[in-house]
Amino acid sequence: MGTIYYGGSGTPVQIEDRALAHLKVVIATKLRRGESFTLSWRHGEGEAAGRSTLWLHPSIPLRFVFDDEEPTLLSRAWIEDLATSANSSGGIMLVPEQTGGAPAREEGQPSST
Question: Is the model's pLDDT at 103 over the cut of 80?
């Protein structure tokens, strides 16, 4: 389980490592462009029912922490799905990965997204 630490928030956000690796690519791309946006997700099992949203802005510190030591093989299709939602008025909605998509590249490699 990975973690997002955002700004001065006392509550870290727990997200599965594979999903977090894909989110990192899309979030970093948007922030590198100087764009602000929201990130929303449904609460997982063991959490209070509902959903949460963060407002992400380039000037607010952000850190991604992964439990897995090895980089994740990324899915181009999932990155594209997340990027499409990131460019909508609703911001990034953490959607499940669609199976059957070809891998894009290993995490940490340059992206054209």
Answer: no
